[in-house]
Amino acid sequence: MLKVPILTYHSNNVMGNEYHNNDHVALTEDLKLIQKLGLRIITLQQLMQWHKGAADDAEMSQAVVLTCDDGSWFDYYDIEHPHFGKQRSFFNILKDHQKATASTAHISSFVIVSPEGRVELDKTCLAGLGWWTDDWWLDAQNSGLMAIENHSWDHNHVTFHRDFSRDHSFREVNDAASCDYQLKQSQAYLKSQGIHARFFAYPYGNYSDYLKSNYLPKQALGIEAAFTTDPQHVTKNSQVWAMPRYVCGEAWQSSDELADILRT
Ligand SMILES: [Zn+2]
User: Fold this and answer.
1) Is residue 152 within 8 Å of residue 180, measured between CB atoms?
2) Is residue 119 situated within a structural domain?
3) Domain for residue 161, yes or no?
4) E strands within 144-233?
5) Ligand 1 centroid to residue 101 C-alpha, Å
6) Who surrounds ion ligand 1 at CB < 5 A?
7) How many Å lie between the centroid of ligand 1 and the Cα of residue 39?
């Protein structure tokens, strides 16, 4: 059966300058591997068109899809990191790759939407230097190289509920009010910024039954599919509200491990 892997990166993951502790290094290396293996990068939208039967199998042969989560400046702007030096943005890494190989590249960036939330997260998760704004979203989207998609209002992040005994989880988003809080208001804000997001990635990769089986199938917010971090290829049988993705650093830790996944 035809199957396509979705690879997921986190541009905030800069804990050094090596493959295993820096997703910018990993993405740069992985693009070379994708090229070497003769794979083609297609968009998440192309994959989902095929998944719903609107594109031929031939368009999926040798295909791979790239996504990234959380949506800080590291996605789009090159940043001088206080400890680890200049970091090339995911956007510019893709641009460099496209230029060097004359191949097509694309990544879908699932962003945390709440403006106040991002101000807070910039302080608690990054350096507090204002690296989590949304002024780049529309340029990224219009570039054709990076699509902006929905990663919830505030990630249900521990920063906002102050209960540090709880696990990192999106499972407690499990009723109409909390789902509206995380999804409805984020779709509306994205729209106000000119972004019509079609796809949602579950924060932490997990979800409640209510969100996946009740809220998402019935919503009229323009969301067409939702993505987990279950490390499997997408097939025609993948569930539209629980589409699998491989996460860099979890599903693979090196080029060799990624090669194993891509050759499957
Ligand atoms: Zn996330």
Assistant:
1) no
2) yes
3) yes
4) 146-150, 199-201, 225-227
5) 30
6) 69-70, 203
7) 27
Report how far residue 262's alpha carbon sits from residue 16's, in angstroms, rounded to the nearest whole number.
26
**How much distance in Å is there from the Cα of 21 to the middle of ligand 1?**
17
Is 183 a member of any domain?
Answer: yes
What does the angle CA 79 – CA 119 – CA 142 come to, to the nearest 5 degrees?
Answer: 60
Taking the centre of ligand 1 as the mean of its atom positions, its distance from the CA of residue 250, in whole angstroms, is 13
- CATH assignment of the domain containing 31: 3.20.20.370
For the cut 90, the answer to whether the pLDDT of residue 170 exceeds it is yes
Predicted pLDDT of residue 163: 56
Q: What percent of the chain has pLDDT over 70?
A: 97
Whether 132 is covered by a domain: the verdict is: yes
Q: Looking at the whole model, is its pTM more than 0.90?
A: yes
Instruction: Kindly report the number of other CB atoms within 10 A of residue 128's CB atom.
Output: 13
pLDDT digits (tens, 9 = 90+) for 41-50: 999 999 999 9
pLDDT at 162: 55
Total structural domains within the chain:
1
Q: Which domain holds residue 257?
A: 6-263
